[in-house]
Amino acid sequence: MRFLISLLLLIALALPAGAQERVAYPAVEPGRVFAFPADHGAHSDFRTEWWYVTGWLKAPDGRDLGFQVTFFRSRPETDEANPSRFAPGQILFAHAGLSDPETGRLLHGERAARAGFGLAEASTMDADVVLQDWTFKRRPDGTFETRVETPDFAFDFAFAPTQGEFLQGENGYSRKGPKPEEASHYYSLPHLQVSGTLTRGGEAQPVTGEAWLDREWSSSYLAPDAAGWDWTGLNLDDGGALMAFRIRGKNGGTLWAGGSLRRPDGEIVRFAHEDVSLEPVRTWRSPDTNAEYPVEQLLTVRLPEGERRFPIVPLFDAQELDGRSGGLPVYWEGAVRTEGGRGYLELTGYVDPLEM
Amino acid sequence: MSALPAVPPPSRAGLVSARLALRWLIAGEWRAHPARFLLTAVAIAVGVALGFAVHLVNGSALASFEGAVRSVNGAADLQVRAASSLGFDEALYPDVARAAGVSDASPVVVLDARADGAEFTLLGLDVIRAARVSPSLVGLNSSGPDRSRDSIFSAETLFLSRAALAATGRAVGDTLEVSANGRTVPLRIAGILDGVGEGQAIGTMDIAAAQWRFDRLGRLDRIDLALADRRAAENALTPLLPPGATLSSEDSEATRGANLSRAYRINLTMLALVALLTGGFLVFSAQSLSVARRLRAFALVRTLGLPRRGIVAAVALEGLLIGVVGGVVGLLAGWSLATLALRWFGGDLGAGYFSGAATKVVVSPLAALGFFGLGLLSALLGSVLPARAASRAAPAAALKTSGDMADPRKPVPWKPAAALLALGTLASFLPALNGVPVFGYAGMALLLAGGVAGVPWLARRLLGPLASARIRRPAALLAVRHVHGAPGEAATALCGIVASTALMIAMATMVTSFRVAVDDWLAQVLVADVYVRAEGAGGIDPEAQASLAAVPGIARVEFSRQLPLSLAPDRPPVTLLARPIDPAREGGLLVLVEGPAEVPAGTTPVWISEPAARLYDWSPGTEIALPLGENARFAVAGVWRDYARQSGAVMLDEADYARITGDATRDEAAVTLAPGADAGAVSAALLAAAPPGSTVARPAELRAFALDLFDRSFSVTYVLEAVAILVGLAGVAATMSAQTVARVREFGMLRHLGLEKRTITAMLGLEGAILGGVGGVAGVALGAVLAQVLIHVINPQSFNWTMDTRWPIGTILAVVAALVMAAALTAMVAARRATAPQAVAAVREDW
Description:
Number of strands of chain A: 23
CATH topology of chain A: AttH-like fold
Strand content of chain B: 5-15%
Radius of gyration of chain B: 34 Å
Distance between the termini of chain B: 21 Å
Oligomer: heterodimer
């Protein structure tokens, strides 16, 4: 008995010292009415948020390339009473990747900074994120623009919306786990028209293409026993847009799944947990991290008219992004093709389980 | 003598047999006097060992200092650094981060922290920036939106280097009470800084938490930079920086460390070289005697056909052997000595330049080769010079006579000695070269050489009256006549004595003068009755100042502030002193050596220390730039004497300081007691009223502490000096005994003439005493001259302070007495051996 008590005491003492600095994060709740352009901007109270653009490019020589650019905002658990201007209340991260089959591997770069001093800021009024020399913002005419620079490439793109905001889940309330608070506020802008310049090796080329913007914010994205997720966003050739994901448990099984299809006429079909399945067809093992990614998958969704299958095939295998040296996680983010569409596949939590 | 037949040209067979004879001669000499050869080798070994050890210790200390600089900087390309511990405004950070050529900028708060008895440098970092600029300082990097790494942004998280963790005796996961800047904060050890160099005590925490918890809000101490284009960055940054910040690279910091102790290190190296030089003299005197003794043998082999060069070569070979043995032994001994010295004294040999740096011996093969070469060179020169002199002797004359070749009736040349002395004096008056008193040292070397060269002349002068005096006692008469009549022999014996005595007297005089000067200065400076210091406690804030001032029994209390202030990135910082200044009042720190001067209107008067004036070439009445305040102008109102801060100090009135910096914290209080107050009781009350961690001291304790520090910083100087003396005394002993043994036949003859053994022993003892006395007198005279060079040239040029000469009469008398005694005693001991019956028999046989 004495042993048990001392053991309990030990456990109590071993609790993280940060326990007393709990930050009150707002929960994600259904029924929220989206208001733009403010919802294009940051939701600083929430724990995590991202502006996530993935897309396909057509180079002047006719080759297909994939690209992604993501800005993350994070509000870590810190003591909010700290009056220092360096107080890490908001942290911004950004990733940019370029998938060129000729290179055979993903080229990428990143930026990170705590918000402050005008060096890193995310506006709450509209999409306007500055992270050192990288930017993502929305122009008054509604076009988004981004500028990134990495040692291997740089791009300066404009994304012109061709369709309205696509609210995911129940009007933008997207569940990620069995508990109702394990959810995010989530909308997408598919079929963005891309124009701009891509610079490689000091040579700037005009490019065009089609992209997908994902906007999510949450305070409790993953259930405690979740390891990561498989996600795909596909711009269909008929003008439709398909998003599907599954949250993987630490035991390897599917903890939660969801997604939706917006048909060309604007009608949205929402998938319940059991309406979506993502099944690995072929895996690829990363030589760098030794993680095994199901880079080729079969997506099956249940539509009112019946089941529909989307075989997902990567542009090439080695599209892993190891951002650890830049203070970011490792994941696979790759351009994929499907029958009647193109998009991106995202595979997270394959090296280490994520906590979000 | 002149009608000697010419030496026939050597035939081939004759040459071979001559060589054989020579080899036999040398081998016989070595067999007969192994101790003498060993002693000369030891003398060389001691010189090489000292030189090499001092070099190793210096090199290792600098390497460890550079290692510490690298560790704390985390290999940033360039840094913006605060000129003083007041830091600079954090608003500079975004401007610096955006400057052209800068690829990334990492803001840093630097704190001197203590926890559980361990001291370490605590750096407040933005881990995301540091990961890009100085990755070795990052314990755990962020992982994007993944919340598992939130702890790195926590205000409680601390990362420690292995050395710091070991010093605290804690483990990862423990919570540690960390004190810095007067605050104590519990921090949790979250991990180890693996990238930090071995032995470096460093901790890191979040920059925001460091600013908040340790009262540094709004201030930064450093911005580490990663550069895309160095030139562009330097051009862009220079105009951006406020007066309180400077641009600094690792190189300039290493230079600063090297500059800090350079003069001291050069001084030590010079002392070590003196030991080597004395060793060379010892070889010289031993070899000249050995050569003199073998003149007949050499003459014999020359008549057998060995050319003149052959003799020189043979003796040089002996010197080479001595040099090689001495050099190898010296290198090994030097390495062991350096290891021991580093363990006992630390990298700065107790001088306090690099405190806290754990040091390992760093061996450089080039330096080893250099010192080995120097040892070899002195052994070779010491052998070749007498051999050349001997080889010039006509073989026939040498065959007949033995002993001194010089004619006692011929006047001794004095011109070379006078020329050397004059040159040395001239060199001493030249200014320092690049902050190093090169000409001062050269002057000392020339004076030394001149002094030694003048010894035969001086000996003749001193002994002249004695020789012509009517002396009754045969022992004394014989002794005086012998020394007077054989000036060459006397000179060789005296060389080592004079050189080592002169150097010793010079050092002793300098150290004594310095110590007395420091002691007098302390008495002038420490005028208050009680001093309260709160350096480690984070300072005395206005509240604490009020409570200290309210302690009963106090007549007056003056608060002062001391800060290191960087004026140039590659120079050690000067000390900024802020205290109430009343130029009219006597005492305190303001013992003016120059001034007071009127300062230009619109400037704040500052009083600078003597080293500051010399280092920065400032003079009273002129305006100077100080990295303090935004638009403040300063002018020198006076120069004060200071022996405490070698890198210079600048003093300004406390009110001016507060107005310019806004800093209200003070770190020292000088308390004058009210008449009749009990010092003990007031001290206790002051300690109670002072911030925790403060110390209270009386002038007597401070004085004792300062003098102890002084002695410790000179401890190695004392050791080196003692070794030089010992080598010198060993030289005297070796010379005396060798001379005595060489004169065995003379003693045999004296015995036959009816002199008693006792008389011969007395004669030799007296001879030794005369030589010791002459050497002592010459050495003291030369030492006095060298001391003047040390005090008025080397010291001001190396350390930038001046002093008056004080003669260490006791030490001088003791040294001369020791010399006379050592010379007389060794001569007598040798005489007993030389006058033994079998020696007499041997002589008869030979005669």
